[in-house]
């Protein structure tokens, strides 16, 4: 179960089937992350790319806070269908574009659209080499606008500060958000 913590759909609970193999971002971590982001962005004016969208916890939080242009990528048909059903229920089809695709394959192609903010929550057992590949593909293939920011959610014990474009890291329980951008300093 996920809960939307703020915005238009604040308090809305969304129940995913028990057989889904997902680990939604905790409310505690989401609150902390969105507190940071709300001080940096006007949500209604930015483009979002949500990689490894899972059941849509982050996608729905952005939509609830007024984001009008969100692209969500996941390679699991059940997850995409679940997010689409939720989007239909909330009547926000015009804000969210769902793509069923492998994230690495998607990022391997030059982007014809760039994003203000990219969020990725790959499986927690992901190794640093794959994180590095994701980061390099995002920056090489111009998925991120020049003043944009990439946020990677990962296990708190992993330190990614040596990876390219790293700028900051915040730890919340067993979750860490690492921030990457072109300028190194926000």
From TrEMBL:
Annotated keywords: Methyltransferase, Transferase
Enzyme Commission number(s): 2.1.1.171
Top-level taxon: Bacteria
PROSITE patterns attached to this UniProt entry: N6_MTASE
One Pfam family linked to the record: Cons_hypoth95
Top-level EC class: transferase
CDD domains: AdoMet_MTases (cd02440)
The keyword Transferase belongs to this UniProt entry's keyword annotation: yes
GO molecular function terms attached to this record: 16S rRNA (guanine(966)-N(2))-methyltransferase activity; nucleic acid binding
Keyword presence, Transferase: yes
PANTHER family in UniProt: METHYLTRANSFERASE (PTHR43542:SF1)
Name of the featured protein: 16S rRNA (Guanine(966)-N(2))-methyltransferase RsmD
UniProt source species: Apibacter muscae
Gene of this entry: rsmD
């Amino acid at each position: 179960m996920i809960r939307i913590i703020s915005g238009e759909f604040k308090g809305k609970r969304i129940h995913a089937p028990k057989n889904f193999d997902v680990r939604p971002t905790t409310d505690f971590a989401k609150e902390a992350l969105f507190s940071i982001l709300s001080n940096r962005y006007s949500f209604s004016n930015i483009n979002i790319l949500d990689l490894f969208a899972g059941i849509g916890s982050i996608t729905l939080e952005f939509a609830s806070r007024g984001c009008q242009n969100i692209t969500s990528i996941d390679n699991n048909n059940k997850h995409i269908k679940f997010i689409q059903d939720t989007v239909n229920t909330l009547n926000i089809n015009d804000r969210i574009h769902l793509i069923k695709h492998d994230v690495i394959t998607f990022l391997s192609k030059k982007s014809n659209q760039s994003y203000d903010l990219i969020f990725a929550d790959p499986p927690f057992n992901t190794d640093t080499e794959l994180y590095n590949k994701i980061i390099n593909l995002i920056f090489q293939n111009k998925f991120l606008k020049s003043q944009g920011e990439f946020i990677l959610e990962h296990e708190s014990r992993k330190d990614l500060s040596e990876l390219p474009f790293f700028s900051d890291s915040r730890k919340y329980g067993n979750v860490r958000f690492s921030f990457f951008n072109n300028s190194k300093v926000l």
